[in-house]
Give the backbone structure.
Amino acid sequence: MSREGQEALLGEVWYGPETLGPLGDLRPRGASDLCVPPARPGVRRGIVEGRATPSPLGRQRCVAYALALVTNRPAVARQDVVWREAATVGFSVRLDDGALVVVNAGRLRFDVDRQRAYYAPRAQVSEYLPAGLGIRIAGEPDFIPFDRALEDVLRPSDRVELVGAVEVHEDRRTPRAWRRDPVPTVLMPVGVPLIRRLD
């Protein structure tokens, strides 16, 4: 593939419409430096509840996963993460005060803990990346120069911290016994939720 062809493919993938991951979530473009909390942080602690499904790489039972592609090449001076994403199939957090926060399926901010992470070889990860970004062509530079991947998961019964604002929404999962009964409500995060696992 020529240099122009590589740039065209990279431009199509990087600036094109977002693609769907294996859990039906929108995949982000690129790796951000850090998970920065929202401007008005509110910290709530509780226990994760939900139905677990297999994670994309390690096939571990989880409600959410975080994936980081890392490199050990000397040209990367500041940090070794070149791609970062996290997603969930949806779960709830039962807060310490008894309230319930529902996190819908989709994107999530959840950092990989290298001490607990599953390390996956490059060949296994290449099949997971969108639009052939993990394919190696002899004599050509890699689109994403990574050497291995780290996958961390969030399981039911994990104790977590939910950072950010939440709003009250109608709970459509809970049926009302009578039409005039009060509408059941749940809390939902505003924007993309930031989750921190507590050890």
About this structure: Residues 3-197 form one domain.
